[in-house]
Amino acid sequence: MSIVLDLDHSTAVRPAAPGRPSLIGMSKPQLAQTLAGIGIADKESRMRASQLWNWLYVNGVTDFDRMSNIAKPVRQLLADEFILDRPEIVSEQISSDGTRKWLFRFRDPANPRLPPVEVETVYIPEADRGTLCVSSQVGCTLTCTFCHTGTQKLVRNLTPGEILGQMLMARERLGDFPGGSRPADGGLVPGGDSRAITNVVMMGMGEPLYNYENVKQALLIASAGDGMSLSKRRITLSTSGVVPFIGPTGREIDVMLAISLHAVNDDLRDVLVPINKKYPLAELLEACRNYPGLSNARRITFEYVMLDGINDSDADARELVRLLAGIPAKINLIPFNPWPGTNYGCSPSSRIERFADIVNKAGYASPVRTPRGRDIFAACGQLKSESERLSKKDRDALTG
Ligand code: SAH
Ligand code: SF4
């Protein structure tokens, strides 16, 4: 059983005001520069930037009028010039296992005539943590054959503000801001931690390393100690293997890395994860070996989807262990989550157990990922939206 909430759209919907830029997604120096750009003096703009930062990311405020330590005329000036845009919630679904999935809608404030785009974001509560699965793109340029998102063409990259907007909106819905209230089914929120969202995984729609700069900016803001303050050890970026950006991810964002491996030889990986033709296994694993800061306490997660009769033999398991030798690694076996129209099937549980056993015996603990939210289509690889890519002609007509 799953529940679809009937939301009160008068509070959930915050349509973007045409033309005014959103402050969400700006770094602190960008905020100060933007304030200086509307005539606020240099020194004051730095102070105001810090105050705004605190209101936006610590307190989750969406209305300039609530910024009590900012003088009224300045609040008015800010409201005239900027918006604090968050996505509109199109739907919120709750799975029988407590997983939540939102369909969020974004408009482009700079081009209000463009049709809005939609992405899915998922919250997975567990006993000791609450994980938010965030999207980086609308659709995906890649076409991994077992992935539902891969059947949707890339519509566009999400901006830093839109990536953060998913986190802010989820926090609000889960009562994570000061003064917020937990949802009625608040028992699903992990015990022991005061926050519902403790972890973030860039594992929603899209390939984060094909939107590197925006993902970097969003994650640096999300992990800033004086803001949203998510620990970098609790943020994981998953990539299908965009090799040139793996090193920069470690050096510049410094978050945990997950690799969608899924096959142990190039012939099969070329089919399952076609980016492999560009960056084959040897290059990918070399980039992993060189990932900055690797240690036994800081390992790379290798994701491996279990596809019946395709990549799930004992020989595959042994080859997997051999390939990863020498890399501080965790292995995550993901039972394939089916979607309408796929030709793949999930390996039987006895096969997954046998595969896991071989991997376990090689020293990798508890590797099978329990599918979450399958009933609301929220599990790995099931996310997709109806947003469609516009032709250049239509886009030009709408943006003038
Ligand atoms: N684009 C990035 C992150 C998003 S996908 C990437 O590919 O890494 C998150 C994980 O789910 C990836 O490992 C992806 O390969 C896997 N996945 C995709 N479709 C799946 C499906 N139908 N069942 C199980 N896992 C799937
Ligand atoms: Fe894109 Fe990742 Fe899906 Fe591949 S698995 S199509 S990279 S979202």
TrEMBL record:
Major location (coarse): cytoplasm
Primary gene name: rlmN
Keyword Cell wall biogenesis/degradation part of the UniProt annotation: no
CDD domains according to UniProt: Radical_SAM
Catalytic activity: adenosine(2503) in 23S rRNA + 2 reduced [2Fe-2S]-[ferredoxin] + 2 S-adenosyl-L-methionine = 2-methyladenosine(2503) in 23S rRNA + 5'-deoxyadenosine + L-methionine + 2 oxidized [2Fe-2S]-[ferredoxin] + S-adenosyl-L-homocysteine; adenosine(37) in tRNA + 2 reduced [2Fe-2S]-[ferredoxin] + 2 S-adenosyl-L-methionine = 2-methyladenosine(37) in tRNA + 5'-deoxyadenosine + L-methionine + 2 oxidized [2Fe-2S]-[ferredoxin] + S-adenosyl-L-homocysteine
Role according to the record: Specifically methylates position 2 of adenine 2503 in 23S rRNA and position 2 of adenine 37 in tRNAs. m2A2503 modification seems to play a crucial role in the proofreading step occurring at the peptidyl transferase center and thus would serve to optimize ribosomal fidelity.
Cofactor note: Binds 1 [4Fe-4S] cluster. The cluster is coordinated with 3 cysteines and an exchangeable S-adenosyl-L-methionine.
First-level EC class: transferase
Residues reported in the UniProt entry to bind [4Fe-4S] cluster: C140, C144, C147
Gene Ontology MF terms: methyltransferase activity
Keyword field: 4Fe-4S, Cytoplasm, Disulfide bond, Iron, Iron-sulfur, Metal-binding, Methyltransferase, rRNA processing, S-adenosyl-L-methionine, Transferase, tRNA processing
Pfam families: Radical_SAM, RlmN_N
Chain sites annotated for binding S-adenosyl-L-methionine: G206, E207, S238, S260, L261, H262, N337
Localisation per UniProt entry: Cytoplasm
Name recorded for this polypeptide: Dual-specificity RNA methyltransferase RlmN
